[in-house]
Amino acid sequence: MKNKYKLQSIISGKIIDDNGWTLDAKNEEAPTLVRSIYKKKQLNVGDISEGLYRFEDWLPIHRRLKGSYAPITYKSKNLAKELGLSNLYITFSGYWPEKGIKMSTCSFKETESYSVAARLPLEEKRILVVASAGNTARAFAKVCSDNDIPLLLCLPEDNLNAMWFEEPINDNVKLIVTESGSDYFDAINLSNIACEMSDFFIPEGGAKNVARRDGMGTTTLSAVTAIGRIPDYYFQAVGSGTGAIAAWEANLRLIEDGRFGNNKMKLMVSQNCPFHPIYDAWKANSRSILPMDDIQARKEVEEIIAKVLSNRKPPYSIYGGLYDAMKDAGGDVLLVNNDKLKEASLLFKETEGIDIHPASAVALGSLMNSIDNNTIDSNALIMLNITGGGEERFKADNELFFLKPKMKFSIEATKQDIYMALKQLFELEVPVS
Q1: Which three-class secondary structure state does DSSP give residue 366?
Q2: Residue range 43-79, pLDDT digits in tens
Q3: Which is it for strands 101-102 and 95-96: parallel, antiparallel or unpaired?
C-alpha cells in the first residue's frame, strides 16, 4: 500500500503516508480532504471479469473482494436521437444483464462499498459504521455480509423500504434506525455517536475516505477509457456531491495520464426540488451551505422523490470539496422538479430499455432542461452518469429478503442511552465511559 500511493492534503499540498485508515490531514489551518496520489500515473485497465478491480491501479485497497462489477459505458443511440445529441455517452451502474452488468443492489454505491471494504486493514477488529439514506446502506450490507466484515448501519426508519436483498443478510451486519420523521442528517448524528466509542467502532468516513471517492471515480474511468477522451460535460444528480468530487479527481489523474486529453469536464450537477441546499449555496456564490431550519428541511425532504439526495451537510465547503471542484472544473448546479423526474424516467425506459432510479432521472432531467434552455452544444461530448438502474428488472427476476432493524432511536435519545444500547446489541464487554 505504501508503495502504491501517498495521500496529499488539498489545502497545503503536504504529502503524508496512509496509516491504513487515514481520513484527515493533521494540523491544517482549515478542514480539508486528502487525496490519493498514485505511483502509477498511467492507468492499466484490467479485464471486465475483474469487476471494479479492473481499475485497481487507482484504488487504495489491500485486497479484492468477491462479487463486484465495474460501471459500463456505451454510446447512446435512441435517447441521444430523441434529445438531438450526437455524442451522448451513458455510464450505467445497476442491473442490466444484457449489458454485462449485474450489480444486485442496482446502484453505483457498490463502487464505494467494494473499494472502502477492500481498504480496511486485514487486522482491523473494530466494527465499520456507515450512515445512509438507503442505497449506500444496501451496498455496504451486501459487500460486508458476503465478505464477513462486521458492520453497523444507521438509517432513517422511513427509508427501510430500501433494505431489500436477493438473499438474507448475515448477522455480522446490524441495522439501527432513527425514528419515523427523521432524515439522513439524523442517521449521520447517530453514526457519529457510535463512533465516539472508538475502541469498538471505526467510521467509514464518507467523503473523507479516499477509497469511497476513488471507488466512485471508476464511473469516470469507465467512461474515458471506453470513449478514448475526456468528455466536455458530466451530468449527475447529487446529495452529498461526493460522486462529482470523485469525477473531478479522476479527471485530474486522467489529464496526468496524458492519453485522453487535457480538458476538465464541466460538472453539471443537479438536485430535486424543493430540497436543494447545494443549489442555494452555489447560486449565492457562498463557500458555505446556507443556514436552514430543521423542520423546514425535513418537510422538503418528505416532498422530493429522490430521497437519496437529501444530505443537509454535504462536503461542499471543505477544501477539496464540491465548491472547489466546481470552481476548478466549471459547470453549474441545476434543479429538477418531481414532474420532470417522472418524465425523464419514462423517457429513459422507452428509449434505452431499462428502468432507472429517481436520482438518475434527476440527472437526465437536468440534461433535458439544459437542451431546452440551449445552454449546451448538441455536438458536445456528454457523459450522463446513470447512478442506479434496473431495480424493477431485478425485483421481477429475484425473490427479495428485507433486512430488519435491531433497534430504533428517537432523535432526542441521549448519548448515554445510545452507548448502552449498542453495548448490549454487540455484547461489548468493556465498560463505555
Answers
A1: helix
A2: 999 999 999 999 999 999 999 999 999 999 999 999 9
A3: antiparallel
Amino acid identity at 202: I
Instruction: State the SS3 of 111-163.
Output: HHHHHHHHHCCCCCCCEEEEECCCHHHHHHHHHHHHCCCCEEEEEEHHHHHHC
Distance between CA atoms of 8 and 18, rounded to whole angstroms?
A: 10
3-state secondary structure of 9: strand
Check whether the bond before 274 is cis (ω within 30° of 0): yes
pLDDT tens digits for range 137-178: 999 999 999 999 999 999 999 999 999 999 999 999 999 999
Cα angle value 34/277/411 (rounded, 5°)? 85
Helix (H) or strand (E) holding 402: strand 401-402
CB distance 333 to 271 below 8 Å: yes
Other CB atoms within 10 A of residue 350 CB: 11
DSSP lists the bridge partners of residue 36 as 7
The DSSP letter of residue 378 is: T
Sign of the dihedral through C-alpha 318, 319, 321, 326:
positive
Strands annotated E in 143-215: 151-156, 164-165, 173-178, 201-203
C-alpha span between 147 and 37 (Å, rounded):
28
Distances (CA, A) of 407 to 39, 126, 189, 298, 422: 44, 20, 15, 22, 9
pTM above 0.90?
A: yes
Dihedral of the CA atoms 388, 218, 52, 143 (nearest 10)? -50
> Hey, what amino acid is at 218?
T
Q: Could you tell me if 206 and 185 are in contact, meaning their C-beta atoms sit under 8 angstroms apart?
A: no
Q: What is the mean pLDDT of residues 119-139?
A: 92
Nearest 5°: the CA angle 320, 114, 149 is 115
Backbone angles phi, psi at 131, to 5 degrees: -105, 145
Question: For the purposes of burial, counting CB atoms within 10 Å of the CB of 72, is it exposed (0-12), middle (13-18) or buried (19 or more)?
Answer: buried
